[in-house]
Amino acid sequence: MTHIHRDTLSRAQARRIALAAQGFLDRRHEVPTMRTLARTVARTGVLQIDSVNVLQRAHYMPLFSRMGPYDTDLLHRAAGRSPRRLVEYWAHVAAFMPVDLWPYMQHRMARARTEAWGGPRSIAERRPDLVSWVYDEVRARGPVTARQVEGDLPRAASENWGWNWSETKQALEFLFFAGEVTASGRTPQFERLYDVPERVLPPEVLAVPTPTAAEAHLELLRRAARSHGVATEACLRDYYRMSTQDARPALDALVESGEVLPVTVEGWDRPAYLHRDARLPRRVDARALLSPFDPVVWERSRTESLFGFHYRIEIYVPEHLRRHGYYVLPFLLGDRLVARVDLKADRKAGLLVVKGAYAEPDAPPETAAELAVELRSLASWLGLPETTVAPRGDLAEPLSVELK
Hints:
By secondary structure, this protein is an alpha+beta fold. The protein has helices spanning 11-21, 34-44, 61-67, 73-80, 106-110, 112-115, 118-126, 128-141, 146-151, 155-161, 165-177, 203-206, 213-228, 233-239, 244-257, 300-307, 367-381, 396-403; strands at residues 8-9, 47-48, 86-90, 94-98, 182-186, 192-195, 230-232, 260-265, 272-275, 286-289, 328-334, 336-346, 351-359, 386-389. The longest helix has 16 residues, at 213-228. The relative contact order is 0.13.
């Protein structure tokens, strides 16, 4: 491991620093435990939540990419049972975050009336009576889903004031943004179970004095710098979705204290910042499929500047206009993104369907063989006994041979 004493980094060095910061240098445990999960989330900072289930929901995948096959009940326990380690909030977007981050989100919660998005913000302005009633319902009955709350709407209120499910859900989402309710877990249908924080979060977390906004901004940027290893100001801001106005003074303070160090990265047209504890390994021997919502690739311009890998998710692109497919995962081999693969879990048929597989121009000769190993591991973890490869992409034929 190299201790970094320099103010200029090559792109390859920046790449290895970034992957080490994200946990790809950590030795995998033979059987991942809650300790393994905690170590991984300490690296990523958050796990982005997304409901798309064509392969596996987004929050499960970064753990698999770093830990290997693991029992998903570990995440359910961490986010749904005592002692609770993770809680949902708008940390990046909707995400699981460590419970100790809750106090540092209080400043965001306090600005719900101006920062929550359209529907929830509007309902708080137009229907404070509904918001108050919904809060009382959650406090009295939680944990409850939005449908359960809606089912108990008072008839008089529903008829006379026009309350409906959509507005009830918006009221819940406003309360969620404001931190007045939180998620105690999810149903098998992936519906949030809403409850009040006092019944969800550990008492010691709720007892922490509320940091000032400046203190919160400093801590969020500090964590972003640690999870990035090296990054531009824009990337640091994006990690916890901070504004320039909030992030700039915090970054200046971290530079002044020496926690982050200004550096130049080869090929980057903006100044970069290196966390003082970042590790620069001589090599990274990773092999992982990355979810479209993995922190390594969620900021697409960073992915391109680090890996020379142009990546866009094509879920919302009409099928005939898609270049690579509906749900395409980059394939990380060593310290490079060497391929991309369009995957689908056909649970009824017990198949992992490889709809397309494409090598990057500089992919090494062993790419197909290494990808085949990772696909077998993924299929086994998902409980899919077979894998099938469609004849799409330059890797499809060698991959089909490797998978037999």
